[in-house]
Design a protein that fits this description.
The structure is a homotetramer.
Chain A: H1 6-22, H2 29-36, H3 40-46, H4 50-74, H5 79-96, H6 98-105, H7 113-139, H8 149-169, H9 180-189
Helix pairs in contact in A: 1-2, 1-4, 1-6, 2-3, 4-5, 4-7, 5-7, 5-9, 6-8, 7-8
The structure holds a DNA duplex.
Protein name (chains A, B, C, D): TetR family transcriptional regulator
Keywords (chains A, B, C, D): DNA-binding, Repressor
GO molecular function (chains A, B, C, D): DNA binding
DNA sequence: TATGAATGAGGATTCATTCAT
DNA sequence: TATGAATGAATCCTCATTCAT
């Protein structure tokens, strides 16, 4: 399995840094190879093409990202707690790895729609985690029972994504994780008074 | 004023269609010129460069987009009604012009961060409209008074944006406008039961 | 006759200044038109094409240049005096009009060989003036009688040209006209001692 | 060292021929690549850009040119002999390689002043060789001791350059090398009788 | 004569990918 | 496995010239 060889990981890690530092368009394969300490041609022993590097970066990093979140919510008892934990871990992980944050929130969006489809596939498990929390909330009667799961998922993910993107675009000048509780309250209670 | 000349509008409209059909990267200037029925060089009498076409597309279309929404909410009495109207018009306008929807939700995101900054500037007035609704809601006591306006704006915009993007990515197979009321209810009431 | 109309001269004079200031390649027809205070299209009522402007500039300016020299040497009695006068006037005229000097010594050399042929045709009368001085010098026994006129002409013109070019390239930091007598002495006496 | 690799020399030689045959402006990089038998992109592994090809052509060829002359004059005893040898070798080398002659006398002059500066730098060693002959001539009392070295150098170089240019422009219809002795005599003795 | 908006041909350069070693 | 020299496709923009007014 190629994914366990050291050079595979070297290249993935080099790619995250190179893309974050140089931006998507200025991240030539040769630059990634240099950062990874391998020859240009070696890249193609581990990845089909440049797009495959990007998708793999996302797969690897999002895999860990989601795993971390799944682990974090597993011992929470209520949907409410799980949602709060998900938000906190979502924010914390990106706050802790700002290279990755830049890549996921800005640089990877520059890829073409075809690549975006693949990226969405990688994102799917995360959306399923969100769905499961929604379902649990409804069944446990902490959430209303007339909720449209798809819409709710879009609200949750859209809100988190927009919040992180704003934070990255404003050059991470404030504490992202500190906003987790407020975001959670907002999603739970909505805007209305009562 | 160049913006009122017919060729300016021809080129803008051609650009929307060409970008929607071919994608951002495959939209050569020559292709846009051909679609617009002008010579390649003519483009440069109206636009500084290729990027300027894209920014201008966004300016023109978002200008109309926002104007439409401002007009629509102007005769609504409550923040609640205004928010619902904003959501409906946001969805309706993109549903009615799916070329534009594709461009704003997918293709334009491929632009580099520098261009994104310009696009964000164009988006600013829209965010201000959202802010004014939030403020009105708080002052009119329909919304809670401890809301963080920035977070609320991110929730509203993030939710709408994610909802439209999903609809575009799923090839517009369902009725976007029909979801407006549910999205509105979700934002107003949140997830919780009471 | 177009050449006597005011706009013809306006365009010629504008061209000299524009080429001297911007260099040959950056001297667009539109820039010359603007400087001359006419529309782009008007240029083509007076000149066949851009090359024709350049050739005409040279014709006009060299015509005056040569005329001035012919006038200056007409009342000199000896070939020696005539040669000295030619050198002085050659240097003086270019020193007095540094725009023209820049154009003739640097910018016009960038033209393609085909254009250079036309320019050489304009230069012909000047070379004939030099030839006539040589002939007079030989017949009057001030110059040796075994001189090859073509070579002598090349030496005289080559020396003057190289001297002016050097002066222009060194940004005209020294007095060109002051070198006339030394150059003359050099051409007359050569390098040898006796 | 790239300059010793075979492709470097292939490209240089191809460039000389392509420029001589097509002229400076019609010498596209792709044409040079084709003539050299390499891909367009390969050019850029050896040269920074198109201008760099031209400067390198001049460097390579002038390097050999000057070396040849320095070698030729090294065993001549007098300044007179050295000057004659320099003239003969100058003429001979360009007569023997008429592609190079066309490039140096006509095509390369079309370059813009910025490039001309670089070319002048390459020419500098040649001018120094001329200067050293002048100095030797003065010190050895074969040349007058009141000579202005700069002017003499300009006379010598200007005369040789103009002579070669004329020969090229007259399509090399006569024997250039045969004129070396006459040119030499002219420079040594000047025009005057005694 | 004069205008100036419109035309459209033309070329240097980058960089993902290959393949002989 | 690993290398890195070589490949070659692909595109934005300028500007001399035209022509309807």
């Amino acid at each position: 399995m190629k994914k366990n060889k050291p050079k595979y990981k070297q290249i993935i890690d080099a790619a995250v840094v190179v893309i974050a530092e140089n931006g998507y368009h200025a991240s030539q394969v040769s630059k990634i190879a240099k950062k990874a300490g391998v020859a240009d041609g070696t890249i193609y022993l581990y990845f089909k093409n440049k797009e495959d590097i990007l998708v793999s970066v996302f797969e690897e990093k999002m895999g860990q990202f989601i795993e971390e979140i799944e682990k974090g919510i597993s011992d929470k008892q209520t949907a409410n707690d799980k949602l709060l934990t998900l938000i906190m871990l979502h924010f914390r992980q990106l706050a802790d790895n700002h290279h990755l944050a830049t890549v996921t929130q800005l640089e990877l969006r520059q890829s073409d729609p075809q690549l975006r489809l693949k990226i969405n596939k990688v994102l799917k498990p995360y959306l399923l985690v969100i769905d499961s929390i929604i379902k649990e909330g409804i069944e446990g009667s902490s959430f209303r029972d007339n909720l449209n799961t798809q819409l709710v998922r879009q609200m949750i993910f859209g809100t988190l994504d927009e919040t992180v993107t704003n934070w990255v675009m404003k050059e991470r000048k404030y504490d992202l994780v500190a906003q987790a509780e407020d975001v959670h309250a907002l999603l739970i209670n909505g805007l209305s008074v009562s």
